Amino acid sequence: MTRISRALALFCVFASVDAAPSQGPALDSVMREKLGHAQKALEAVVTSDWVALETHSRELERLTGDRRWTVLKYPEYAPRSAAFLRAVQALHKAASQRELEAAPTAYANLTLECVKCHQYLARQRIAN
After folding, report:
1. Which residues of 20-58 are buried (b: 16+ CB within 10 A; e: fewer)?
2. 29 CB contacts (<8 Å, ≥6 apart)?
3. Using CB atoms within 10 A of its CB, is residue 8 exposed (0-12), middle (13-18) or buried (19+)?
4. Measured between alpha carbons, how far is 38 from 29 in angstroms, rounded to an integer?
5. C-alpha distances out from residue 77 to 17, 100, 107, Å
6. pTM summary value
7. Residue in 117, 123, 106 with CA at minimum distance from that of residue 50
8. How crowded is residue 113: how many other Cβ atoms within 10 Å of its Cβ?
9. Structural domain boundaries enclosing 52
10. CATH of residue 41
11. Exposure of 1 by Cβ count < 10 A (0-12 exposed, 13-18 middle, 19+ buried)?
């Protein structure tokens, strides 16, 4: 239960951080879609709904290949995008293998990758 509580707390942090508005409506749209799938993934982790967790982790992975994600293909975003993809793949693996212990940890790691990127974006906006 402690892991689930931590995941929920991290998710709340993630939900309060928005994509940089200067990046345009296309990226904002994909980030909103990502947030929706992340919220549903949290629900699936908490309820051990493996089918939903597989579905939403697959959708998160699909979004990394979406043309709207293009801004994240620039060199400064590439490591963050790759880390997010690895975290999504770990979440999907936990879901597909029905790993009750690994799923909350994978979700927390996914959320941390989101937060790290959004913090980076915030620092970049301040620096600019």
Report:
1. eeeeeeebeebbebbbebbebbbebbeeebbebbbbbbb
2. 68
3. middle
4. 14
5. 17, 32, 21
6. 0.77
7. 106
8. 20
9. 2-127
10. 1.20.120
11. exposed
Domains in the chain, number: 1
Model pLDDT, residue 103: 97
Number of H helices, E strands in the chain: 5, 0
At 74 the three-state DSSP class reads coil
Encoded tokens for 112: 């941390």
Report the SS3 class of residue 1: coil
The tokens for 125 are: 């906006």
What tokens appear for 58 in the block? 């697959």
pLDDT digits over 3-56, tens only?
655 544 444 444 444 444 456 888 889 999 999 999 999 999 999 999 999 999
